[in-house]
Amino acid sequence: MNTEQNEHIEVIMGLITYGGNAKSLSMEAIYAAKSGQFDVAIEKLKEADESLVQAHQSQTSLLTKEASGDNIELTLLMVHGQDHLMNAITFKDLATEVIDVYRKMDGQDISAV
């Protein structure tokens, strides 16, 4: 495996790792909200956002290479990485909504959030 292939795999692993972290943090946020720990839940969502930024940076580096004319090989690993990122984004959005429901059930005003 050459240096370029290694870099390509590292970028894809960034998608998988940071996407997985974001999804896990979003789930932790839901669990925290479920137990009434709303400050913890909000902090977990912020951490999930940070992981998503990292994942997007990995994705952007691939998009930039392809846009500049480099041929990016589509592999199962690449599809898996993109799948992790997409699921993490969806999961984080859903976690935000679930936390709002828990906050509303707790009598909190969610319009100010």
List the keywords.
81% helix, mainly alpha, 113 residues, Methane Monooxygenase Hydroxylase, Chain G, domain 1, elongated
**SSE topology string:** HHH
**Approximate helicity band:** over 70%
**Overall geometry:** elongated
Structural class: mainly alpha
Please, how many helices? 3
N-to-C CA distance: 49 Å
Major sheet details: none
The CATH superfamily turns out to be: Phosphotransferase system, lactose/cellobiose-type IIA subunit
- The fraction of residues assigned to DSSP E strands is under 5%
Average pLDDT for all residues:
91
Tally of domains: 1
Kindly provide the name of the CATH class: Mainly Alpha
What name is given to the CATH topology? Methane Monooxygenase Hydroxylase, Chain G, domain 1
For the secondary structure, the number of strands is 0
CATH architecture label name: Up-down Bundle
